[in-house]
Amino acid sequence: MTTSNKLFWKISGTLMALLVVLGLAYVLISGYIGNQYMQETHQRLYGGLAESVLKELKPYTKGEVNETDIKDIMHSTMIMNPIAEVYLLDPDGKIITHAAPKGKVKADKVGIAPIKEYIAATEKPFIIGDDPRYPGICRVFSAAPIMEEGNLTGYLYIILQSEKAAAVSSGLFNSYMTKIGGNLFFVSLIGALLFGLLAIWFLTKNLTNIISTVRRFKEGDMNARIKDTDQGDFKVLAETYNEMADTIVGNIDQLKSVENLRRELIANVSHDLRTPLSIVKGYVETLLIKEDNISKEDRVKYLETSMSGLERLEKLIAQLFEYSKLEAKQIEPAKEPFFISELAQDVAANYQVLAKDKNIKIELIQNKKAPLVFADLSLVERVIQNLMDNALKFTPEGGKIKIELITDNNNVEIKVKDTGPGISPKDQTQIFDRYRQADRTGKKQAGAGLGLAIVKKILELHDTTIQVSSKLNEGTAFMFKLPAYQTT
Question: In sequence order, what E strands does 99-193 have?
């Protein structure tokens, strides 16, 4: 049995159980209302019985019970309504005499409030009162006040349905309700069930298409999508599935990209590690082989070259370690207020020696005294250093590097601009990706391409971004902003 069929039968079973419960509730409620209707009908038909009897006969004569009239009252009442039970009450509801079967009356008093309410009503409402034979059980009644010389001397209280009549009536009524209720319930159940099954089938028919599409996706069809989502009965489900499938495909593409980058990293790192290691190894082997025949000047030269290779290797390993910590979010910025102008001056001064070797001029420009910024001092210094390393790498001899600080009300913009060959528009979109380098000189530069990727990660920790502006043969500028420190 398929999933859609299982769901269909589960919903159908639930509907069947619900219909049975509703049907039984309908029968019980109908029986109760029908019984109330019969009692109200009986009371409306015979509600004036007590008043009619008292118009013809007087139960009291000069305050004394008139035994003859009492017998006539009870006889007349039994003729008019054979199933009635007659009670003569005093003004407080105490039973004086009655026409009920001997020994069956268990109460000596009935509640007077329903009687007063019934007598006071202009249009006789449906009211039930105490049955003296069965304390705690209420039945329909007729009642009328007994007046003598303008004074209330008691009440004529008639139970309109005796125990036997109630039993016969209830039995007949229950039999009738069982027949009509059972037939109606059966017909309603079958009709509602058929209609419900048809409705469920119609509503769930789109599940087959959804399940088929999900199964295709599961089996490797990454383009499987649910069509016509606006017309189906499971619009939200279909749209959610399509969005989920798009997200999964996007994640897979991202993983593939990461895998490609990982392979590029291995290739780049292998090459960058192999080069300085080969240089160091070659010169060390030369020193060992020609230990007795090499001049002091050559020995120093070989050692300096080996040291340079080791420093390059050390820098590459440090970059890899730093980027891995940033990507794993193991670095938390320790923000503090500091003068960005002083930091820029220190960095510019530190790079003067390297710039002088390449005949490059470094210039620091401030339009006004830069305010304090709120950031991690060491991480911001690392950003500017990486930008300066990048500028020195691509600026030709005789070129210029500018560090510019631009202040507005809430931020300080730091710009590092060089006069190098520039970056093509197609390369500008990927220079901040890890292990990527833009080809700005026609040949591959040394390094693994992590400098700008580290800059981007550090600035992301500061909730800001790095931007680039470049034109071929005119130079490149990198800019980022830091929030000014609010002293108040």
Answer: 128-130, 138-148, 151-159
Q: Mean pLDDT per segment of 10 residues, for the chain of length 488 residues?
A: 59 71 71 73 77 74 67 63 78 83 80 89 82 86 85 86 59 60 68 70 69 82 77 71 86 77 67 73 83 81 84 78 76 90 91 89 84 91 92 91 88 92 84 59 51 89 91 91 82
Predicted TM-score of the model (pTM)? 0.47
* DSSP state, residue 485: P
User: Do 197 and 12 form a contact (C-beta atoms < 8 A)?
Assistant: yes
Query: Which residues lie closer than 8 Å to 114 by C-beta, 6 or more apart?
Result: 127, 128, 129, 130, 138, 141
Cβ–Cβ under 8 Å, residues 33 and 62: no
CA 464, chain centre distance (Å): 31
Give the rounded distance of the alpha carbon of 7 from its chain centre: 24
Contact 157, 140 (CB under 8 A): no
Q: Is 383 exposed, middle or buried (0-12, 13-18, 19+ CB in 10 A)?
A: buried
Q: Are 140 and 9 in contact (CB under 8 A)?
A: no
222 DSSP assignment: T
What proportions of the chain, in percent to the nearest 5, are helix, strand and coil? 55, 15, 30
342 Cβ neighbours under 8 A, 6+ residues apart:
none
Q: Which amino acid appears at position 86 of this protein?
A: V
- Report the distance separating Cα 106 and Cα 63, nearest Å: 26
Helix axes 49-56, 67-80, angle to 10 degrees: 140
